[in-house]
């Protein structure tokens, strides 16, 4: 453990002032001192420290970031996803003006074997209108004048049939947009067109009508806003993706979380099921009790990483499913782990190697060719690979992890393999995970912890004592959980204080990501999350502002510094900028004297961003300037994070 705060000052403060719950003092018997030599060489740290962790939890992907507006487009929902659901969940039969018909689900001549079910709409008489309608994921929000791309795979099964008519309607039945498509033929054919609504509505419905008596098969009924993030087809919701991009994450860990190791061996996230044409992907049950369309799959994840300048950190199952699998049905909580049979492990290990080829292999390699066929002949530049997610560290886990680890490091020494040390910052899984990491010399291990704010304040020296000769650390999931898991500034400041400690130790803690990232308001399975959203809005939390303030001012050199408050100072060698981050988690303002040796080599006006309680609403970062040519006094407001940016 390396003390960072001057011992004499600490001793004095302990005598003069009572400690608050966060371990900081509230006394103001004279300014505290913040001192740093800005000209020092400093310590190299990871430039990748600040990243994000994305998992399809809380409708983060389907119904969230993935811009598809139609729920259950492929008629693959079932009661395995959620009790009461079936292949027609989300859909209703439409019979208007005397029209009579029925809708059933069939599977005898599917569009693709991975996508077995489809709807068959039977139009019984030649009157009125018969069709199906869909109200989207918790509503279907459309905006006046925007273009929406509709598409459907259709096949006339019996009867003469007729053209398909596609409508966007308001809940009150007003027509918002109309599109007429050719009559389907006897073979599966993709039909598509544009809808441009004449009003902005949050509860629209998409209606597909068939004109003409007969039976028509429909599958992959899809509606996308044309204006996706970076204009990608099969793309991402622009406002949500932008909120993520604004974090300037240096990496993205995906696709989970518990979602990766899955609710049983048959529910593991298998990356090859998620690439290629979307109608050929094998969608499946989501461990968080809904359905994964897998429209946001590995290609889209890699592409998103590239679009936002972040390194991909995919996680594959370590050959075992989640220890909590099937917990509510047959097994005891924590005892549901099962391993892929050992005779199947060579094939599974090959599958992991194939992922590396899909990401990095030449366009004429087997898996590189699949990437190229999807429109990306250049490699994605994969550097990191997570193997396992906070697994129970059992002999079964160890045997399978070892096989995968050894195969990947032998074939791809350039890839940093990230192992796992369980779901907690200590305890048997943590100890065992580290034992294996030490034995195998795993390049990096993934630690997880969700703890109360005080835990973070109390552990500000955790990594000071980590052995630098051992595996590096990825803090893959962490968050301060305040009372009733509310998203408070107090929790955000505990995270901020901890981030100053992570930056100081970013020679060994090389990656860190808050968890989870996204939560759909009214439809969460986990709280708190970094970003909340509805179908129309994005709402940012105090923790989001903290993450953004740190990530937007990251560096690759740590400068030794002293302060009574949690502080970190980093330099970005590229721009030469220096960033001071200071956390006052107490409930009193704190006067400080900034002793910044060498400040003269910087522009005298420093930009300051402060996140603190606001009289007129939720805490938001506010900007000001600090004149470095004055004797520098700075008052850190009560309950605040301050970032001071020094530029050349
Ligand atoms: O981040 C939410 C969940 O927390 C993750 O899926 C899992 O890894 C952890 O238990």
TrEMBL record:
InterPro entries reported in the protein's UniProt record: Alpha-L-AF_C, ASD1_cat, GH, Glycosyl_Hydrolase_51
Catalyzed reactions per annotation: Hydrolysis of terminal non-reducing alpha-L-arabinofuranoside residues in alpha-L-arabinosides
Domain Alpha-L-arabinofuranosidase C-terminal stretches: 476-640
Domain of life of the native organism: Bacteria
Name this polypeptide is given: non-reducing end alpha-L-arabinofuranosidase
SUPFAM superfamilies per UniProt: (Trans)glycosidases
Pfam families listed in its UniProt record: Alpha-L-AF_C (PF06964), ASD1_dom (PF22848)
Class of enzymatic activity (EC top level): hydrolase
Tagged with keyword Signal: yes
Signal peptide span: 1-21
Family stated for the protein in its record: Belongs to the glycosyl hydrolase 51 family.
Alphabetical UniProt keywords: Glycosidase, Hydrolase, Signal
GO molecular function: alpha-L-arabinofuranosidase activity
This enzyme's EC code(s): 3.2.1.55
One GO term of the biological process aspect: L-arabinose metabolic process
């Amino acid at each position: 453990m390396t003390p960072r705060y001057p011992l004499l000052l600490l001793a004095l403060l302990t005598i003069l002032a009572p400690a608050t719950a966060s371990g900081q003092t509230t006394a103001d018997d004279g300014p505290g001192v913040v001192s740093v030599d800005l000209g020092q060489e400093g310590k190299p740290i990871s430039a990748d420290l600040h990243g994000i962790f994305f998992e399809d939890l809380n409708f983060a992907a389907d119904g969230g970031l993935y811009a598809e507006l139609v729920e259950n487009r492929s008629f693959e929902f079932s009661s395995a996803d959620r009790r009461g659901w079936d292949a027609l969940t989300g859909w209703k039969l439409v019979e208007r003006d005397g029209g009579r018909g029925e809708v059933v689900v069939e599977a005898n001549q599917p569009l693709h074997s991975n996508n077995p079910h489809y709807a068959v709409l039977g139009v019984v008489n030649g009157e009125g209108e018969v069709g199906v309608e869909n109200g989207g994921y918790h509503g279907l929000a459309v905006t006046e004048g925007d273009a929406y791309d509709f598409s459907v795979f259709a096949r006339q099964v019996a009867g003469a049939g007729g053209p398909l008519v596609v409508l966007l309607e308001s809940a009150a039945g007003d027509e918002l947009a109309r599109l007429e498509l050719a009559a389907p033929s006897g073979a599966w054919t993709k039909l598509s067109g544009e809808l441009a609504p004449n009003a902005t509505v949050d509860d629209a419905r998409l209606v597909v009508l068939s004109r003409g008596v007969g039976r028509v098969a429909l599958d992959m009924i899809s509606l996308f806003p044309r204006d996706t993030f970076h204009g990608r087809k099969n793309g991402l919701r622009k406002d949500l993706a932008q909120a993520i991009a604004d974090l300037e994450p240096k990496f993205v860990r995906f696709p989970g979380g518990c979602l990766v190791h899955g609710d049983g061996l048959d529910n593991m996230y298998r990356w090859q099921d998620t690439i290629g044409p979307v109608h050929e992907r094998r969608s499946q049950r989501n461990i968080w009790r809904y359905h994964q369309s897998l429209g946001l799959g590995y290609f889209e994840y890699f592409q998103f990483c590239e679009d936002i300048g972040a390194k991909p950190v995919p996680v594959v199952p370590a050959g075992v499913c989640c220890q909590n699998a099937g917990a509510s049905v047959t097994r005891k909580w924590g005892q549901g782990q099962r391993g892929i049979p050992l005779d199947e492990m060579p094939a599974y290990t090959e599958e992991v190697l194939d992922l590396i080829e899909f990401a990095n292999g030449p366009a004429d390699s087997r898996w590189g060719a699949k990437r190229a066929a999807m429109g990306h002949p250049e490699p994605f530049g994969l550097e990191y690979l997570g193997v396992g997610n906070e697994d129970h560290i059992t002999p079964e886990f160890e045997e399978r992890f070892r096989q995968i680890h050894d195969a990947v490091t032998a074939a791809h020494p350039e890839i940093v393999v990230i192992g796992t040390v369980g779901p907690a910052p200590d305890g048997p899984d943590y100890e065992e995970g580290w034992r294996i990491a030490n034995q195998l010399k795993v390049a990096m291990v993934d630690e997880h912890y969700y703890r109360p704010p005080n835990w973070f304040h109390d552990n500000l020296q955790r990594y000071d004592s980590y052995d630098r000769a051992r595996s590096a650390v990825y803090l893959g999931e962490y968050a301060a959980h305040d009372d009733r898991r509310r998203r408070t500034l107090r929790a955000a400041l505990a995270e901020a204080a901890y981030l100053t400690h992570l930056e100081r130790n970013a020679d060994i803690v090389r990656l860190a990501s808050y968890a989870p990232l996204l939560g759909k308001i009214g439809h969460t399975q986990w709280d708190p999350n970094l970003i909340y959203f509805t179908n129309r809005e994005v709402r940012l939390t105090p923790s989001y502002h903290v993450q953004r303030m740190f990530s937007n001012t990251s560096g690759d050199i740590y400068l030794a510094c002293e302060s009574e408050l949690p502080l970190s100072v980093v330099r970005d060698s590229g721009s030469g900028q220096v960033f001071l981050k200071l956390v006052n988690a107490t409930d009193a303002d704190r006067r400080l004297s900034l002793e910044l040796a060498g400040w003269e080599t910087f522009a005298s006006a420093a930009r300051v961003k402060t996140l603190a309680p606001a009289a007129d609403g939720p805490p938001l970062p506010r900007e000001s300037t600090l004149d470095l040519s004055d004797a520098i006094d700075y008052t850190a407001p009560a309950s605040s994070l301050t970032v001071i940016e020094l530029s050349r």
